[in-house]
Design goal:
The protein has 431 residues and is of the alpha/beta class. The protein is built from 15 helices and 17 strands.
Length: 431
């Protein structure tokens, strides 16, 4: 099927730079963009009027724990370690696979309606997220995190590593490549080194990506140095983890030497501005990492530390907080932030055919309704998206040419049922 989106404004990409076209046309051949321009092309089966809309690349959320939507608001105002070990983990122990599936569906509603077309996730019972992604049409990089608290546990005894590898073998590339399976080591402070070393080697043999948390808090970073005489980045590097294409969430406390390792090993970074500020973790050296040539992206983290999955909010915070922290309004550029939330995310996820509106790329497209008071006048579209637009301004979300959400209506998810099911779970767990 060939679909022509007409009369729209388009935030396209040309030679790696954004280019804005007014009153233009975007053609889609099945799942791929085959035309962008101001002249009306011929040969399309269907036309869709997009007057007053800005088309932009779908946003890519590079770090989260989607089923934690069910724990939104739990343990607010606590330090990370107390929040995680005393509040969150005891509730997580009571989650059934069905609960986790519903939590993920709740997250999908929120992400799709606020312009996310692809996300990277780390959680247990990951087959639930895989099934949901296959059914609803979103793109997802799913991983099952490996943890190990017992130094006497052998690698063969670690059931999490086995589950992670089985998941990769069973589902990597499912749904025509919409579902990719990554491997994951939760963090240095939740894993034993012999498990990290063995799992990293297994993942290398499989050829997977690796999703980790890295130097999120000062406590994590400094306790690692006390325990092992090295930073978490050095620890992972020495254990062979970075021999895999790796992406690391947070990287708030990374040192200059750590950043050199990340650059040398091609490790991408998922920056989570809200989570880092809410949990008082600090300010990641984002511009410095970008200047060093590290691929930095944006993520929301889980809703229990955010407390939403709205990538427009992350985009906004990413574009302003570093200027404030450094007393310098020139630190973060809107174009850099938008690239972090789109093209850089595509690179992190191993999806080179996404992350930009360009002929030949997949049709992962969002439409912003420009007929809103806070979006007028549109003198600088990049600034408009970074500083003014809200997740609720998204009126269409399309993945691989399929519309998943339009004008408040979900095409592939039953919002009423999901909200009802989620309420039942929350009543049982927390009521
Ligand atoms: Zn996280």
């Amino acid at each position: 099927m060939k679909l022509l989106l007409k009369n729209c404004h388009i935030l396209a990409t040309e030679n790696g730079a954004f280019r804005y076209l007014e009153n233009a046309y975007l053609g889609i051949n099945n799942d791929t963009i085959d035309y962008i321009g101001t002249e009306k092309p011929v040969g399309y089966d269907q036309e869709k009027d997009m007057s007053g809309r800005m088309l932009a690349p779908g946003l890519i959320n590079c770090h989260g724990h989607t089923p934690m939507t069910l724990l939104r608001g739990v343990g607010s105002d606590l330090p990370l370690q107390e929040w995680l070990f005393d509040k969150i983990m005891p509730i997580e122990d009571n989650l059934t696979p069905e609960d986790i599936k519903i939590g993920n569906q709740l997250a999908l509603l929120e992400m799709i309606s606020t312009g996310t077309t692809s996300y990277s996730d780390m959680y247990f019972e990951p087959q639930t997220a895989v099934e949901n992604a296959i059914a609803c049409g979103i793109k997802a990089n799913i991983s099952r995190p490996v943890q190990c608290f017992d130094p006497n546990e052998t690698y063969a005894q670690n059931f999490r590593a086995k589950q992670a590898i089985e998941l990769f073998k069973g589902y990597n590339g499912a749904a025509n490549g919409r579902v990719l399976i990554d491997c994951s080591i939760h963090a240095e402070y939740t894993c034993q080194p012999h498990i990290v070393e063995a799992f990293s080697a297994d993942c290398k043999a499989l050829g997977t990506r690796m999703h980790i948390h890295l130097s999120e808090t000062k406590k994590e970073h400094e306790e690692c140095i006390q325990k092992y005489g090295k930073t978490p980045a050095q620890w992972f590097n020495d254990l062979g983890t970075f021999e895999n294409p790796t992406f690391a969430a947070h990287c708030v406390w990374v040192t200059e030497e750590d950043m050199d390792i990340l650059k040398a090993k091609g490790v991408s970074v998922a920056h989570n501005p809200t989570s880092n500020m809410k949990l008082g973790s600090g300010f990641a050296p984002v511009q410095h990492m970008l200047d060093k040539g590290i691929n930095v992206t944006i993520g929301t983290d889980g809703t229990a530390s955010n407390n939403n999955l709205n990538m427009f909010e992350e985009l906004h915070l990413c574009s302003v907080i570093h200027n404030g922290y450094h007393n310098d309004p020139t630190i973060m550029k809107a174009a850099d932030c938008l690239k972090m939330a789109t093209a850089n995310g595509a690179k992190l996820q191993g999806r080179p055919d996404t992350g930009a509106l360009e002929v030949g790329k997949k049709a992962d497209i969002i439409a912003i309704d420009l007929n809103r008071p806070h979006l007028f006048p549109n003198l600088d579209p990049l600034a408009l998206l970074c500083y003014s637009a809200q997740g609720s301004d998204v009126v269409m979300t399309m993945v691989d040419g399929q519309i998943l959400y339009e004008n408040g209506e979900f095409k592939t998810l039953d919002q009423e049922k999901i909200l009802h099911d989620a309420a039942q779970v929350v009543n049982r767990l927390l009521g």
